[in-house]
Amino acid sequence: MSKFIFITVFFFLFLQFQTKARVTIDDYRRADSTIRFNDMVYQIISDVTWSGDSPLLWYRVKTKAGFDYKLVDAIKGSVGSAFNLEKLTGRLNKLSGKKYNPDKLKLSQIKFKTDEKVCTFVLDSIRWECKLLNYQIKKLDKIKKTTSPRYWSSTEGDYDSPPVAAPDSSYVAFVKENNVFVRCLKTSKIHRLSFDGSPGEFYSKRIVWSHDSKKLATFKVRPNEKHYIYFVESSPKDQLQPRLQKREYLKPGDALPILQPALFDVESFSKIEIDCDDCPMQYYLANLKWWPDSKAFTFEFNQRGHQAYKVIEVDAHTGVSRDIINETSKTFIDYSSKLYRYDINDTKEIIWASERDGWNHLYLIDAKTGNVKNQITKGNWVVRGVEYVNEKDRYVIFKGSGRNEGEDPYFIHYYKINLDGTDLVDLTPESYQHEAVFSSDYKYFVDTYSTVVVPPVSVLRKAIDGSVVKILQKADISLLKEAGWKTPEVFVAKGRDDKTDIWGNIYYPTNFDSTKSYPIIEYIYAGPHSSFVQKCFSPYKYYFSGLAELGFIIVQIDGMGTSNRSKAFHDVCYKNIKDAGFPDRIKWIKAAAEKHLFMDTTRVGIFGGSAGGQSSTAALLFHPGFYKVAVSSCGCHDNRMDKIWWNEQWLGYPIGKQYEENSNVCNAGKLQGDLMLILGEMDDNVDPASTMQLADALIKANKEFELVVLPGMNHTLGGDYGERKRRDFFVKNLYHQFPPKERK
Fold first, then answer.
1. How many CB atoms are located within 10 Å of the residue 238 CB?
2. What is the pLDDT of residue 155?
3. How far is CA 98 from CA 28, 85, 612, 615, 725, in A?
4. What pTM was estimated for this model as a whole?
């Protein structure tokens, strides 16, 4: 036997021996204790709040002693304590009869009145006022819990609407008995504008007046048949017997309301017929808006199947419609994440986001002609959102990523650019992930930047050029390092095409030993609506940190089919949800294992929830040669069972064979490996029946799996109990050991 072969065999046997090391109760205790890392980062800021239109802002800073509050004057570039916490706490304790600790005082909704040197704040649902010159305080009022207003559905036509006043207060408009009426406020006389409304085809209560108060627009609605999902709440807290519940919930292929734009002339009390042929093909019509000259109004048309999206204008005198913008795609238009429209009324221009050149960018549209005046942003990078439009000076502040060569393409930077596409300025040039909070006049902003490796720094900047006015805080992680926290590793490898960079992170246990062999567990969420790999600093991740301590290497990856890269990168998901970027993920993990010999690609697990629940099960159905163990929580295992907006966007309409091809239920017979399904019985995000139908298909295919049903729980990865089951399942099936009985 050659020396080389002897060494290789010895190393292999050594690794095999190492893998048999037991997962102990100490490992579980260490896993439970990783949450303490959250409390070991200091000098970080939160609750950055600008004080009205003033140049003042306050923020809370976490120190080793507790909380402190800082007040910043952006013009002066000064930073000081917002309060004397000892004096403030003393006054509060005397007046309230409580014993607040000045270092633990958690105030909210702080507002400063600069001229009077007075501030107000909320503590324990009480609003207080404090005069900062002498710290005299008084109780103002008790904060009532706000309840979200009931969402009004356009399909409801069985009750009268609140009146909507005209801009000149001459009339109010309202819907009664499914028709549109106006009442003259001077004479109180009521005029009926429509006569064709009925319970089966009624007028929407969302009435929009023209600016000259002479016309109004709304939608006429043909309602759809409602679809409900049902739940049996097995263990309600207030009674012994189970309770049946239901939720209105549209699924792919369901009928939708059909809306028609409607236009009324209030001067003649008549309806103007509108010429619009697109309406029967709609997914929705929305966003009725009048131009300031009242000569026309616009609305947006989203075609069902999401391959066309329009901005349509209707002439207020003739009712003739025309397309201002007609966005089309051979795959899908990402209306739920990338849609952006801003109207510049004075010049009748529209700032519009589009992926028409293969990357998400901003365009300046001439609304009078529908022509593109110019592309505002361009290049092989993407706009991630618009923060501010300055119409007077004609520039825009926006978020973007992927522009800087050699940098993580997901890092968000803030940019300023003129509307003609000139003078692009990176306001946040540091190669980090940035998060900004702007002043109300957009002259200043607080920028906090970090990476998964580098702790956050917060600075005050000028929004005109990004220059730093003041360094506010630099995070202190000295205690975190002393506690043995292990820095994640950012790793990059080529994707399935051997060209595209795929980015992800590797997470290690605190007692990591490079001479050992570790199973690999991937946390997957591959929803096409965004990207998901951690980019900013966070010392503790609930689903990663504890699991790693049991002797696993955890990875998270953004593969093809997810968003925030090129349109081609994103289009991989079209009618192909089951792909989930797996060819890229597998190639990435293998590349990482080539670099890190301690990563064992013969023992790979995967877990996730919701879309990640679907993908983690799909790993065992479509890639069992690589993935061996999966834990899938609240998964949408058949996209025909899930919410309409998400699934029709990526899998298309009409419903076709692609839904079956991507269904875990239809492919259940392909299962190989060890699978655990976790389900909350009251999940109203993804129909619980989706998981139960998968279980039924697996039983019929005579497949082994575990099913954990959690009474009373909603859309969840399982909470603490689910985390315990997930940990144990991976220990049993990747280490082939029984977890210690003493664990929690």
1. 5
2. 37
3. 39, 15, 46, 51, 42
4. 0.93
Structural fold of domain 3-39+488-734: Rossmann fold (3.40.50)
Contacts of 565 (CB under 8 A, 6+ apart): 382, 402, 409, 531
Alpha-carbon distance 356 to 371, whole Å?
14
| Strands (DSSP E) found in 100-163 | 108-113, 118-123, 126-131, 136-142
> How buried is 314 (Cβ within 10 angstroms: 0-12 exposed, 13-18 middle, 19+ buried)?
buried
| Contact present, 496 and 579 (Cβ < 8 Å) | no
The whole-angstrom separation of Cα 648 and Cα 662 is 13
Half-sphere exposure of 271 (CA within 13 A, CB side): 18
- The domain locations on the chain are 3-39+488-734, 154-280
Which two tokens mark 114? Answer: 């600069």
* Distance separating alpha carbons of residues 515 and 14, to the nearest angstrom: 9
- Tokens for 374, please give them: 């110019």
* Enclosing H/E stretch for 462: strand 457-462
Residue 115: what pLDDT? 63
| DSSP letter string, 162-184 | PPEE-TTSSEEEEEETTEEEEEE
Q: In the structure, what pLDDT confidence band is assigned to residue 154 with cuts at 50, 70 and 90?
A: very low
Q: How far apart are CA 182 and CA 446, in angstroms?
A: 48
CA dist 606 and 78 (Å) reads 50
CB 68 within 8 A of CB 58: no
* Pair of tokens at residue 152: 């009004």
Q: How many CB atoms lie within 10 A of CB 222?
A: 17
Cα R_g (the chain), whole angstroms: 29
Q: Give kind and range of the element (H or E) at residue 493.
A: strand 489-494
Give Cα 560 to chain centroid, integer Å: 18
Cβ density class 31-42: b for 16+ within 10 Å, e for less: bbebeebeebbb
- Please state the rounded mean pLDDT for residues 351-357: 98
Position 452 pLDDT exceeds 70: yes
The predicted pLDDT at position 5 comes to 47
433 close to 451: Cβ distance less than 8 angstroms: yes
207 neighbors 180 (Cβ within 8 angstroms): yes
Residue 423 is classified by DSSP as -
| Structure tokens, 203 | 């007028």
Q: CA distances (Å), 339 to each of 63, 288, 311, 361, in order?
A: 40, 16, 12, 11
Across residues 74-94, what is the average pLDDT?
94
Task: Name the residue with tokens 């998060």.
Answer: 435
For residue 29, the surrounding DSSP H or E stretch is helix 25-33
How far is it, in rounded angstroms, from Cα 683 to Cα 714?
A: 4
Strand boundaries in 29-117, DSSP class E: 44-50, 56-62, 67-73, 78-81, 108-113
Host H or E run for residue 478 = helix 478-482
Please give the Cα distance from 119 to 3 (Å, whole number): 78
User: 416, 400, 406, 425: which is closest to 490 by C-alpha?
Assistant: 406
Of the candidates 741, 581, 736, the residue with the CA atom closest to the CA atom of residue 674: 736
The rounded distance, in Å, linking the Cα atoms of 68 and 83 is 9
Contact 407, 373 (CB under 8 A): no
First to last CA, the chain: 50
Q: In what order do the strands lie in the sheet with 468-474?
A: 433-438, 444-450, 457-462, 468-474
> CA-to-CA distance for 412 and 402, rounded, in angstroms?
8
The rounded distance, in Å, linking the Cα atoms of 129 and 443 is 29
Q: At 20, is the pLDDT very low, low, confident or very high (cuts 50, 70, 90)?
A: low
* C-alpha closest to that of 157 among 220, 241, 229: 220
Q: Give Cβ neighbours of residue 18 (< 8 Å, ≥ 6 apart).
A: 515, 516, 517
Q: At 397, is the secondary structure helix, strand, or coil? A: strand
Nearest CA-CA partner of 310 in 284, 331, 280: 284
Dihedrals phi, psi of 645, to nearest 5 degrees: -65, -40
